[in-house]
Design a protein that fits this description.
Elements: E1 4-10, E2 15-16, E3 25-27, H1 41-56, H2 59-68, E4 73-82, E5 93-96, H3 106-110, E6 118-120, E7 125-126, E8 128-139, E9 144-147, H4 176-194, H5 197-203, E10 209-219, E11 225-231, H6 235-246, E12 255-257, E13 260-262, E14 264-274
Antiparallel strand pairs: 1-2, 1-14, 3-6, 4-5, 4-8, 6-7, 8-9, 10-11, 10-14, 12-13
């Protein structure tokens, strides 16, 4: 009988859950073209992707960025989703300190170069995601953007919330960091209690190695959990992912920005190892 080990990660806080089984990878990070021989492949990915972004920005778009920016630094954050073959998927998201240009980056992401995927110990491609943050300074003389090397963001998308959603059982604190830990713990428990791992592993005859299900949902302004999409390598796994989302209890309180309730998108990657 196949053994299955569940591991999950909540993108909202980017903090790993404890895991009872260490996942082993032959390649533990995606490889951008030209980064094969580089030891720090994550840094190489960021440098190469930053260069790609600048190459894709037309002069008119760079001018628009400079004109509409309220600061002398433009920040961008991209959550890349790659499938098992290294192709970027439609779930990828782009955020910028200049809101008006976001739509222009949709085609940029669609055309993003294929990477070499992560590979598990069985040398199978593993679906994965990469969070990258970019900073560019404005050169008003040449009307060009200049990349900031080793840029470290001071803000990430969820940091804009004044208050995070309050999950059931997390009502005793108003501190965002504690709320983050509490909702992580609650969702981990939800997955462990509800994910039908053994049934799926044996019933679908899934291959040995790491399998991924990406769960996307929104907590709306009333605190209701709204399924957005599920990405999985098998239709039955997609159905299981949707079932898991629908089984998440509505939250006691939604997220707030500037004193107003707002909808908050969530991404929950669920990974399980079959051996």
């Amino acid at each position: 009988m196949k053994k299955i080990f569940l591991v999950s990660l909540l993108a909202f806080s980017m903090s790993c859950f404890a895991q009872s089984k260490v996942l082993k990878y032959n390649t533990d990070f995606v490889i951008f073209e030209g980064c094969d021989s580089i030891i720090n492949k994550e840094k190489c990915f960021k440098e190469k992707s930053s260069r790609y972004i600048l190459e894709q920005l037309t002069d008119s778009l760079q001018t628009k960025l400079i004109r509409n920016s309220k600061k002398d630094t433009i920040t961008m954050s991209i959550r890349f989703f790659f499938d098992e073959e290294g192709n970027i998927t439609k779930e990828s998201h782009f955020y910028s300190s200049v809101d008006s240009i976001s739509k222009h980056f949709e085609q940029l992401l669609i055309k993003f170069p294929r990477v070499k995927p992560m590979r598990d110990e069985f040398d199978r491609g593993v679906a994965s995601f990469v969070n990258s943050f970019y900073g560019f300074t404005l050169d008003t003389i040449t009307n060009k953007l200049l990349p900031i090397n080793d840029f470290e963001p001071t803000e990430v998308p969820y940091a804009f919330l004044d208050k995070l959603p309050v999950y059931k059982g997390c009502e005793d604190t108003n501190d965002n960091e504690l709320l983050s830990k509490c909702i992580n713990s609650s969702l981990k428990r939800h997955l462990q209690e509800n994910f039908r791992a053994d049934l799926l592993a044996n019933g679908l005859d899934l291959p040995l190695g790491i399998n991924s299900i990406f769960l996307f949902f929104t907590i709306d302004k009333t605190g209701k959990i709204i399924p957005t999409s599920v990405r999985a390598p098998h239709p039955i796994l997609k159905m299981e992912g949707l079932r898991l989302i629908k089984a998440i209890p509505d939250v006691d309180s939604p997220g707030y920005l500037d004193g107003k309730a707002v909808s908050v998108p969530f991404f929950l990657p669920l990974k399980f190892l079959i051996e």
